[in-house]
Structure formats: structure tokens, C-alpha cells
Design a protein that fits this description.
The protein is α+β, with helices and mostly antiparallel strands and 149 residues long. It has four helices and eight strands, in the order αββββββααββα. The strands form three sheets. It has a four-stranded mixed sheet, covered by helices on one side. A two-stranded antiparallel ribbon has the order 2-8.
């Protein structure tokens, strides 16, 4: 993320997303936001290890999801839209300095949580999103897409 942010233009929003998602809906990048799942029957969802604490459409924080088997609203999807790229850069650089091994940095808790504490960040409910990070979710995603297209 540091290498990408070194090249990010701070005059336009920065969009961060995990690489194992397919999103079938449009959303605005006009404001700071984090993507959260809004379960709808018939769509494939992954396992959300982190839940957003939300009040009136604004993300107040992130907490660990202690029940990975249940489908909950407001599971943090990994998608983040940042208009304050300089703040994002400072948070990412601080996390890198504090954690010499990159695998010790937790994106949700070391990057996203500090950002939403300092910048008003709305939630972006996503209903048509597929995660294929495991063989099981990849198989479900393939079955869904082949059956519906």
C-alpha cells in the first residue's frame, strides 16, 4: 500500500479494495466511505472478520466479528474511499514504522479504524458483492455467475 500511495494523487480520491471481490453495483466516490455488506438472499457473501459500528450512516469504529458463521449487516468489505489521501498516507506510514514486518499490519484496525476516527466516513451498503478468497467461496461465486448470466 505504501508503494501505491507514493504514487497517489492527493487531489483526487483514493479507492482501496481487496483483489478477490466482484461488485455488481455502482457507487459514488464523492465522499469518504467504507463498504459494508448488506445481505440479500441469493447473493454470495464471504466471511467478514470485521464489523463496522454504524450510527446514522456514519462509521464510528470497527470491531472484530466473533461469529464468522452468521451473515451480519455491516461486515467491513475492505472497500475504502478516501478524500484525505495525505491523512491516509500518514496512517499507513505510521503503521509501517510501528510494525517492521508487513504481515503484522492489520488493514482494518491499523489503517481503516484510525482514518475513520479522524475523518467523517459514511458507510456504503453493498448488496451485490461476491468474495472468492477461498475455494468454497470461489465455487459458490462461479455457480452463481454461471447460473445467472
Amino acid at each position: 500500500m505504501i508503494y501505491a500511495l507514493d504514487r497517489a494523487n492527493s487531489r483526487i480520491p483514493t479507492l482501496i479494495t481487496f483483489c478477490d471481490y466482484i461488485i455488481e453495483e455502482q457507487f459514488s466516490v464523492d465522499y469518504d466511505a467504507i463498504g459494508v455488506c448488506k445481505p440479500v438472499e441469493g447473493y454470495v457473501y464471504g466471511t467478514y472478520k470485521t464489523l463496522a459500528v454504524v450510527e446514522e450512516g456514519v462509521a464510528l469504529g470497527l470491531i472484530e466479528n466473533k461469529d464468522l458463521n452468521s451473515r451480519k449487516e455491516n461486515g467491513f468489505t475492505g472497500i475504502m474511499i478516501c478524500h484525505n489521501t495525505m491523512l491516509l498516507k500518514s496512517i499507513v506510514y505510521s503503521a509501517a514504522v510501528s510494525n517492521p514486518k508487513s504481515e503484522d499490519i492489520d488493514y482494518a484496525f491499523d489503517v481503516v479504524r484510525p482514518y475513520i476516527k479522524r475523518a467523517r466516513t459514511t458507510v456504503l451498503p453493498l448488496t451485490k458483492m461476491y468474495e472468492f478468497g477461498t475455494e468454497d467461496t470461489l465455487s459458490k461465486t462461479r455457480r452463481y455467475i454461471i447460473g445467472n448470466h
